[in-house]
Amino acid sequence: MRQKRQPNRYVILAAASIVNFVHGNPYIWTVFQPYVQEEYGLSLAASSQPFTIIIGIFAAGNMLGGFLQHKIGARATIFFGSAVMCGGFFLAAMAPHNMPWLISLGYGALGGFGSGCAFSMLTAVPQEWFPRQRGMVSGITIGMVGISGILMNPLCDYVLSRWGYRTAMLMVTVIYAVLCLGAFWVREPSASDQAALSQGSSALQGDSESSKKQFTVGEMMRTRSYLIISTIMALAVPAYVLVNPLMKSLGMARGLTNSQALAGVMAASIANIVGRFALPWLSDLAGRKKILRMIYLLCTVSVIGVSAAGGLLFIVLISAVCLVYGGVVSLFPVVVSDHFGTKYQGINYGAVMIGYGLISILCPYLLDIAGIELSFILAGVASGVGLFLLKFL
After folding, report:
1. Any idea what DSSP says for residue 5?
2. CB atoms within 10 A of CB 6
3. How many CB atoms are closer than 10 A to CB 184?
4. Rounded-to-integer distance, Cα 347 and Cα 336, Å
5. pLDDT digit string (tens) for 224-246?
6. How many Cβ atoms are within 10 Å of 2's Cβ, its own excluded?
7. Angular region, 371: left φ>0, alpha ψ -120 to 50, beta rest
8. Where exactly are the transmembrane stretches of this chain (predicted)?
9. Other CB atoms closer than 10 Å to residue 4's CB: what's the count?
10. Domains along the chain?
11. Which of 79, 294, 308, 337 lies at a C-alpha separation of 20 to 30 Å from 168?
12. CA angle 261, 295, 372 (to 5 degrees)
């Protein structure tokens, strides 16, 4: 009997990476926000709400995606999440001027939920095909999220300035819907595929993946490692969430010209992408904990420095914060699979992200309460606590 040919795992990785481009959707709101604020007559807080919601609800979508994977399969889960996301974006595009809350519902709630649902599969499935290179694979798939912001922001800004909010959001919906069709090429490894992948080799931690305990989400959440990992990840969030929306305006307040501040934002965006690609790959070579210690130390020093720095030093420090954040969001999916296995990776990673989502929502209120400088110092302290907790991981 002729043996069934194993799928090309590099095609699967490429397809997952292309589809993951659409999940840079939160980063386009930075160019949509002022147009929505003006067109719908909203306050700054109200026009920023869709971004807060899409970030905060993302973890819930991850958990649903992981659950659905074991009911309907990864590919169907990606299509379901993509349909919910694109439907939400279409709803946001059609929001009447007297119903601006539909933008928060569509772009924020449905967009974040559907995006998280599909994203959990696009990071989990490629890791199963590359058991010894999970860091590299995570960096490639999640790195595409960073590239998305770089490419989509100028395109959206161009369309917004000429044809307005509705046309720009419809354009985004169509582009994302087309790219999501790449899910046709994403599939999970069968039992025979997994046997072939592990045959004659060992996974990163010294055992084949099939020999490791595969934790369900309930089992995982009862472990000390879960509490430590989810807390450490959450403690890295304040630095980036506080710095990101203020990079340009704060840079100009610290002595940069408009063009220099824009160059700083671009440098920080590039650093974010570099962190997503390079740091997980380095963790395959040097070990996860060593790279995590390095980036949490860098984050602690950098975000505290941002509280007072100006000029070129300001650009260097905000770039360092963004480099760290890129590494964090790419490394932690691998940390989760290292500790708890890949079988339930989607739902497990969503559970780890619960703290991430809560902190993302709460951070803007910290700025109102503590002010910019003190908020940055507190973010540095949080990162320092994360560095300390790595001792127990």
Report:
1. P
2. 13
3. 12
4. 11
5. 999 999 999 999 989 988 887 77
6. 4
7. left
8. 40-64, 76-95, 101-125, 137-155, 167-186, 225-243, 263-282, 294-327, 347-367, 374-392
9. 9
10. 9-195 (1.20.1250.20), 213-392 (1.20.1250.20)
11. 79
12. 45
